[in-house]
Amino acid sequence: MSAALAATADDEAPFRRFARRFADSKLALLGLALLTLILLAALLGPSLAPQNPYDLAQLDIMDGRLPPGSRMGAGFTAWLGSDDQGRDMLSGILYGLRISLGVGIASAAAAGLIGTALGLLVAWRGGWVAGAIMRLVDLQLSFPAFLVALMVLALLGRGVLNVVLALVLVEWSYCARTARSAALAERRREYIEAAEGLALSTRRILFRHLLPNCLPPLIVIGTMQVARAIALEATLSFLGLGVPVTEPSLGLLIASGYQYMLSGQYWMSVYPGIALLLAILGINLVGDQLRDVLNPRTGT
Amino acid sequence: MLWLLHRVIQAGFVVLAMTVLVFVAVNVVGNPADILISPQADQAERARVIAAFGLDQPLWRQYLHFLVQAAHGNLGRSFVFNQPALQLILQRMPATMELAVSAVLLSVLIGIPLGLLAGLWPDALLSRAVMAGSILGFSLPTFWVGLMLIMVFAVQLGWLPSTGRGRTALLFGVPWSFLTLDGLRHLLLPALNLALFNISLVLRLTRAGVREVLPMDYIRFARAKGLSPARIVGVHVLKAILMPIVTVVGLEFGSTVAFAVVTESVFAWPGMGKLIIDSIGVLDRPVIAAYLVIIVLLFVTINLVVDLLYTALDPRVRSDEAG
Amino acid sequence: MQALPAAATAPILEVRDLRTHFFMRAGVVPAVDGVSFGVAPGEVLGLVGESGSGKTVTGFSVMRLVEPPGRIVGGKILFRGRDLAQLSERAMRDLRGNRIAMVFQDPMTTLNPVLRIDTQLIEAVRAHGRTSRRAARARAVEAMAMVGIPQPEERLSAYPHQFSGGMRQRIAIAIALLHRPELIIADEPTTALDVTIQAQILAEVQRLAREHGTALLWITHDLSVVAGLADRVAVMYAGRIVESGAVDRVLDHPRHPYTSGLIESVPSRNRRGARLRQIPGMTPNLLALPRGCAFRTRCPHAADACAAEPRLTETAPGQMVRCFYPERVTAA
């Protein structure tokens, strides 16, 4: 590389360089736009939705299973139709999105915190406790997340908190493995040895030196985990093991619409499905590009 | 050989560890009396069963008892079907295996050619479309795709049936769908649905493998020998990339069996996945425990077989183990 | 040693003004930029240069094995009078491994690690002409014996990793020799090997080429190899030939400052104790070559005139030099 080229690359602020590399992919930008849109829809959901789908007093069974574009009893138009309870589908989707995203983000965040802490500790300390933790991680990773979550919920029963708990239980191990391998790789670097040589406190080394340098792979895994958690929650709810019927997430909306699909009343399952797909797709597209940009082998 | 023994012992430990987990899950987290005794039972019956199952004994004795019973194939009776739980699961197993094996076959038959296409001509429009499609394949929730398949091919077009196994024929005393035309028609949609994720996976692995192998010296040397492109791709490239694909497909077989739970529920396919969901719905816990034990055995076996296959396929691993 | 005058025999291979460029994102890299040379039957031509000089790309161009983003953009590659640059891929395939063979630099990577040796030999036999599996196997055994592999019959069913580097290179040479090619392109086949193995392989190739009357294009960065093996030598720098001629003539009386620099950087028994000289500067960046003579930024004799492009001129019978001041080199 010529000297001039190298200079411009170095002058650029790290974040700007990151943003420029991220924007290299049109698909990733599309994903980001999608994700922003979905997040906005979820955040503003209650003010956008024409009705509160969880308030039984607002539902009228006479409005049940109306096709898209019908006038509801309350006077507004159900652009995406209504379900068998007389719920406006658009409102149902906006509220369902809040549950799906909330469960996904909360579980991924909790799993990320627990997994990262344990992974760093295992990499730093070693010893038989660390060995036992990693054995547990390996054991759990040899079974599909879906199966583990299924079994946990079979024992605990349905409920939003139970779903989050089950998802955290299956996801922490991925984060722990990633954190451990990243930390092990970083540990051998000179700057950590230098920090140890200065006799800095373990906590300071772990959180001020080691953690920031292990973050890139954890951010990538974390993003992907959110998408996985959302898909898992939807699947479990679809199977009747997830959230309760009174507060349907996207998966449960799809499930309750399923029985009417065979008679051609497609909208009850199709529209929540599309919302679910867009959310997962947006996160995956962003995560994919993040992996390419943050990966030290393919990155700068 | 020593290595094999080591591997088998290791697998045994995993199974043992999992039985502890299952035991703890069924007997400690829940109330074992509720799990083992039908809710309709009266007080005298309860006391009799508690004594019979040794629930008044210390936990480690209960665990030993559980192990001995499990070793004899006794994992309790289903409340709902009033049959031994294990027998119930084993009866449903062939349907699930048929579905899972079909899905794996489909994923290889569709994934490898598409992956080769995307790897050999990465800039072609079709290749880009295939790669974009694979991201979709990872993102689409399985159950929703199942619904869409039913909506399009069963409801709108009316080409294929939406639920059930269709007509089956007996082979080794077990009914199979793939032996009749009607059965095959019933099998196609669920198998495709279950295969979707694996198609994307195999496709991406194949493409990555091709991109990695193509610039290798030995491929150029193969060209320098005057070999035809068909031979170079079909033998030199394919043989070199097959290893990771076989490994992943093998390891994914377990996940496929697990995910059959979803597909079976969508397509009302009478396999053990549908059984487990129904059992969870009515809290038929002996069946749940039996399913868990079977699944654990299945996974441990799969991991072992994949390891062995891997060793058989890669000459380098083989000699490393020997040396 | 007899220096075959180029006109005495019709050359098997005649390369005229070959240009192979690589179209990279950062610009066009003229890896080979107007190279001409010829190889006569039974003759060994040493193609010498540093890494990045374009010698390997020249070899791959003759085989038509240049991969994108590289492309042959001009010139003629006449093999027995037929221009390979214009040949269809199908026709080219019939020549490769059959009438023109190639041996690669690193024996550790030229054989497919997941295929057994017999597979890789038999497929090469059967790529050209119908042969039964059994006959092809017999040919494979014969070829392995010819290059000096002990117990060829048993070793045939082994995998590449079970052979040493030297043995693997012998197998690659056996594959190259299978169809008695008229031309073998050897791309530094001994560089990756131990010195003793190197000498064995060199002797082996020399013997086999002599016996079969095969022409050899020997690509190397090592002048001592060329001195012992080649009849004629062509020195490449930055995608061009800067000097060529009979090997004794060029090595004893180099006329290009680059050739002379190369020779002085080779350790030699005659100059024991003397300081080894090295060519100052770095291998040029092909994306930003100096105008005129590409070597002038590293040349001790460079003058203002060198900003213009020097042409290849004959300074002695058969010796061609691309330099404005060939006489200064002798003076040095």
Task: Please characterize this protein's 3D structure.
The complex is a heterotrimer of chains A (300), B (323) and C (332). In chain A, 73% of the residues lie in helices and 1% in strands. By secondary structure, chain A is mainly alpha-helical. Chain A has a single domain (15-48, 80-298), classed as MetI-like (MetI-like fold), CATH 1.10.3720. A two-stranded antiparallel sheet of chain A has the order 1-2. In chain A, strand 1 (70-71) and strand 2 form a beta hairpin. Chain A is elongated, with a radius of gyration of 23 Å. Chain B is 77% helix and 2% strand. In chain B, a hairpin with a 2-residue loop joins strand 1 and strand 2. Chain C has two domains: 10-99 and 179-331, 3-Layer(aba) Sandwich (Rossmann fold), CATH 3.40.50; 107-178, no CATH class. Residues 1-7 of chain C have low confidence and may be disordered. Chain C has helices at 55-63, 89-95, 107-110, 117-126, 133-146, 152-155, 165-177, 195-212, 223-229, 247-252, 257-264, 326-331, and strands spanning 13-24, 27-39, 44-48, 70-79, 82-83, 100-103, 183-187, 215-220, 232-237, 240-246, 312-316, 319-322. In chain C, 32% of the residues lie in helices and 24% in strands. In chain C, a hairpin with a 2-residue loop joins strand 9 (232-237) and strand 10 (240-246). Chain C is globular and about 65 Å long. In chain C, the strands form two sheets. In chain C, strands 6-7-8-3-9-10-12-11 form an eight-stranded mixed sheet, with helices on both faces. Chain A binds chain B through residues 27, 139, 142-144, 146-147, 150-151, 154-155, 227, 231, 234-235, 238-241, 251, 254, 258, 261-262, 264, 266, 269-270, 273, 276-277, 280-281, 284-285, 288, and chain B through 14, 17-18, 25, 29-30, 132, 135-136, 138-144, 147-148, 150-151, 154-155, 162, 254-255, 258-259, 261-262, 265-266, 276-277, 280-281, 288, 292, 295-296, 299, 303.
Entry keywords:
heterotrimer, A: 300 residues, mainly alpha, MetI-like fold, two-stranded antiparallel sheet, 11 helices, 1% strand, disordered N terminus, B: 323 residues, 13 helices, 77% helix, globular
What value does the average pLDDT of chain C take? 84
The quaternary structure here is: heterotrimer
Residue-averaged pLDDT of chain B, rounded?
A: 81
- For this structure, what is the CATH class of chain B? Mainly Alpha
- Count interface residues per chain for the largest interface: A-B, 36 and 41 residues
Distance between the amino and carboxyl termini of chain C = 27 Å
Structural class of chain C: alpha/beta
Largest sheet of chain C: 8 strands, mixed
Cα(first) to Cα(last) distance of chain B is 12 Å
Low-confidence stretches of chain C: 1-7
CATH class call of the largest domain in chain C: Alpha Beta
**Helix/sheet category of chain B:** mainly alpha
Strands ordered across the widest β-sheet of chain C: 6-7-8-3-9-10-12-11
Which percent bin holds the helix content of chain B?
Answer: over 70%
